Amino acid sequence: MDDRHGTGPSGMTSIGRRTLLAAPATLATLATLPAWAATPVRPSKRPPPSERRFHSAAVEREIVRVKRLIADPKLAWMFENCYPNTLDTTVLTVTDDDAFVITGDIPCLWLRDSSAQLRPYLHLAASDPALTKLFRGLIARQARCVLIDPYANAFLQDPTARTDLDSSQHDQTEMKPGVAERKWEVDSLCYVLRLASSYWRATKDRAPFTAEWAQSARAIVRTFREQQRRDDSGSYRFQRSSVQPTETQLWSIGNPTRKVGLIHSSFRPSDDATILPFLIPANIFAARTLRELAVVATEARGDTALATDAAALAAEIEAALAAHGRMRLADGSEVWAFEVDGFGNALFMDDCCELSLSGLAFLGCAAPDDPLWRHTEAAAWSERNPWFVRGRAGEGLGGPHAGFDLIWPMATLVRAASSGDDALIRACLKSIRDTDADTGFIHETFHKDDPTRFTRPWFAWANGLLGELIVSLARDKPLTIRQPL
After folding, report:
1. What burial class does residue 52 get, using C-beta atoms within 10 Å of its C-beta: 0-12 exposed, 13-18 middle, 19+ buried?
2. What is the pLDDT of residues 38-54, one digit of tens each?
3. Please, what is the Cα angle at 415 between 411 and 419, to 5 degrees?
4. DSSP alpha helix (H) spans, 18-156
């Protein structure tokens, strides 16, 4: 996630600090119809073949195969539009050792977003040379990005350029060439590790795991250790002039902490500033991806020193999480905290991104039947979470990044992907189907009472997440999509 505000059609309205697009007035006449029945014939929203930025024969076959299994006509249409959206629109360059994948409406590469955007195609990577080249290129590009600045979350295509993002130009931090934004988010580096690990497991291809990649992996471990801040406050500083407190950090380093072995994160996956600097879901993800790094370092490179260092740091974080990562809610139930400070203070809420408390099972950081995670997820999807949102159009998770009364479809997709309950999965799919404002795509947010008021008409990560969910359901729970919702 980021602070991008893409341009859109004229006739915009505004809620909070985000721009919301007003859908055509003719939608009002369809209000009494179910969303999937609103348009009998739905032409593809994909760019013409000549304008698509990347072609994968394997992905095209997958679209045809899976779409045939989807009984609901609108959901099938949305799948066809969304699943290839990253490839169709965001892959700017691909060479043997480089790939630049933008997030959508801003031409910059976010480490987190780009990793997640390619994930829906991982199961096809070993069988398609074009995808193999794309994954190799992105892993190599991300390694070079980390070596430019491991504290940056977003990068420019030209590594010698200076950012022209209005939000970043005057940040009080060390802005290096090639960096688009420098918000320190633990999860950005976790996603770099996860992409490499997932690709290795899917392909056993050693090609991307070069000396440069190993150098970047060491930089990630070193940065995590520095942000444990055991001896000092570390080298990272960040302040931004903004009317929103979520955009900056107190005295450039954040609120006080007791140094307990957890990693400080200045910002959340939503790009909002943390309140208490130990962001628990990010620390859980860090421990998990460090364990994965140890495996890749050993198997792909025979680098036992890197593997040992990564595993040792993972063990430190896991011990700190066991001692400081939990809290009790007012009803006495024990849950994972969202943020803590090591002094015994804790905050409970949830982010609206896939890296969240409720997304821990989706990311393989908790077993789906783990009682602690199930209690935590249930609390996040209830009024115990101050950013749980319910309205006439649906219910879901929101957050301070976009403002009040806005629901993030990404969180709904993650909830469906984490569940074994067919009825809940279908309810989530129906919500996604009926809140796209008949655009055929997934948006960043929509208003709880009116889905025709939404942010970000072009959000490739969320689009891919719908495609990824449908592909997994077609494999594991085909009955959930083989009848209309």
Report:
1. middle
2. 445 699 999 999 999 99
3. 170
4. 57-67, 73-82, 85-89, 111-118, 129-148
Give 166's contacts (C-beta < 8 A, 6+ positions apart): none
Helix, strand, or coil (residue 207): coil
Task: Output the six-digit token pair for 484.
Answer: 């209309």
pLDDT-derived band at 1 (thresholds 50, 70, 90) equals low
Q: Which amino acid is at 259?
A: K
Q: CA-to-CA distance for 306 and 196, rounded, in angstroms?
A: 15
For 460-479, how does the pLDDT look when each residue is reduced to its tens digit (9 = 90+)? 999 999 999 999 999 999 99
CATH entry 1.50.10.10 includes domain 102-386: yes
- For 390-441, the DSSP string reads EETTEEEE-BTTTBTTEE-HHHHHHHHHH---HHHHHHHHHHHHHTSTTSSS
Secondary structure E strands in 156-261: 179-181
Q: Give the other-Cβ count within 10 Å of 430's Cβ.
A: 18
Q: Find residue 450's DSSP bridge partners.
A: 447
Which residues lie closer than 8 Å to 142 by C-beta, 6 or more apart?
111, 114, 115, 192, 195, 216
How crowded is the C-beta side of 134, counted as CA atoms within 13 Å? 26
Please state, in angstroms and rounded to a whole number, the distance separating the CA atoms of residues 300 and 213.
11
Q: How many angstroms separate the CA atoms of 452 and 22, rounded?
A: 6
* Residue type at position 293: L
Residue 18 scores a pLDDT above 50:
no
Which of 17 and 415 is assigned the larger pLDDT? Answer: 415
- Region 199-205: what's the mean pLDDT? 98
Query: In angstroms, rounded to a whole number, what is the distance separating the alpha carbons of residues 9 and 265?
Result: 36
Distance (Å, rounded) from C-alpha 203 to C-alpha 380? 36
Phi, psi of 289 (to 5 degrees): -75, -25
**Predicted pLDDT of residue 164:** 86
CA distance 423 to 435: 18
Residue 225 main-chain phi, psi, to 5 deg: -65, -40
Domains of the chain, residue spans: 102-386
Report the helix count and the strand count for the chain, using DSSP H and E: 13, 17
Of 436, 409, 428, 435, nearest to 481 by C-alpha is 428
- Amino acid 41: pLDDT: 67
pLDDT beyond 80 at 31: no
Element (H, E) at 109: strand 109-110
> Encoding tokens for residue 232?
């000092």
d(CA 290, CA 244): 33
